[in-house]
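Example 9 (inverse folding). The structure is encoded as follows.
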């Protein structure tokens, strides 16, 4: 059974977790979430991988989208850690969901949905992936949906994930691990639940993410619909620590097929080498050196 924390208290296994039918997350999808890896060490200490980065991103999205101007991330972090401790799992998948709570947004005159939010934390065994998926590499297909940079909700982990899940279902039916979402300009965006990296002549390139537009493209740059992934940020830091050049830029779809290597990142699987896009092979059709090295480095965080 998952360990469940809801609105300040833990839910007993025999007790249903109840959320109001008027909750804005249920009624209108007004809410944000973070999915994290955590667990309890052999010495009994709970841990959360990159927990501070997850909380920083959550608070930033809450401010930007008007959910809350002052999210209490310290209290949320404590609740996440306690949920992990109670779950007692060596490795857990932890989802933190924050909605606008039981209110009508249309009745509010300000730009903030601040009120009594609904806070839900669920810890359960981490998803298990077959090792062969990483040794052989995965395949991706191109999603039918497109990401719109002019939609201010793109690039945030809002509750509106239906279209992404539908694309993932379609990809799985075709034997692919992920679906690659292009922007309306036909530049590469991301996977449905992941960020993309390509290696070209020893250089690491990745699409510009939300919040990086002016830094990379200068004043007046178009907004990006790409989520600033937590594992994506870790890969960039790790690459720069190794002295590898990293470029964040607009990437044409054709460049992905021409890349020497491609890999995807998220907080669940870490680093996933990609060896095929649709029917086209990437490089030699096997996981590349850099993807393998980044995966080993990511796994070393758990040793």
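The amino acid assigned to each position is listed next.
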């Amino acid at each position: 059974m998952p360990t469940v924390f809801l609105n300040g208290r833990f839910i007993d296994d025999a007790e249903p977790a109840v959320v109001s039918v008027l909750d804005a997350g249920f009624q209108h999808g007004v809410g944000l979430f973070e999915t994290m890896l955590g667990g309890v060490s052999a010495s009994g200490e709970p841990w959360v991988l990159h927990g501070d980065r997850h909380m920083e991103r959550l608070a930033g999205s809450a401010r930007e989208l008007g959910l809350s101007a002052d999210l209490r991330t310290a209290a949320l972090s404590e609740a996440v850690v306690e949920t992990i401790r109670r779950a007692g799992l060596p490795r857990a998948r932890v989802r933190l969901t924050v909605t606008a709570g039981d209110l009508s947004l249309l009745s509010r005159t300000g730009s903030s949905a601040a009120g009594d939010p609904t806070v839900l934390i669920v810890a359960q065994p981490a998803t298990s992936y077959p090792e062969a998926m990483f040794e052989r590499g995965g395949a991706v297909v191109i999603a039918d949906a497109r990401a719109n940079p002019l939609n201010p909700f793109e690039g945030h982990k809002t509750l509106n994930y239906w279209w992404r899940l539908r694309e993932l279902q379609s990809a799985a039916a075709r034997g692919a691990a992920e679906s690659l979402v292009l922007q309306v300009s036909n530049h590469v965006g991301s996977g449905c639940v992941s960020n993309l990296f390509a290696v070209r002549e020893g250089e690491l390139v990745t699409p510009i993410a939300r919040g990086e537009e002016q830094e990379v493209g200068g004043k007046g740059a178009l907004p990006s619909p790409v989520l600033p992934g937590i594992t994506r940020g870790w890969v960039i830091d790790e690459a720069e620590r190794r002295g590898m050049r990293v470029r964040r830029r607009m990437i044409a779809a054709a460049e992905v097929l021409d890349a020497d290597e491609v890999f995807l990142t998220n907080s669940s699987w870490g680093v996933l080498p990609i060896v095929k896009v649709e029917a086209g092979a990437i490089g030699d059709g096997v996981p590349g050196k850099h993807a393998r090295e980044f995966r080993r480095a990511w796994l070393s965080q758990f040793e």
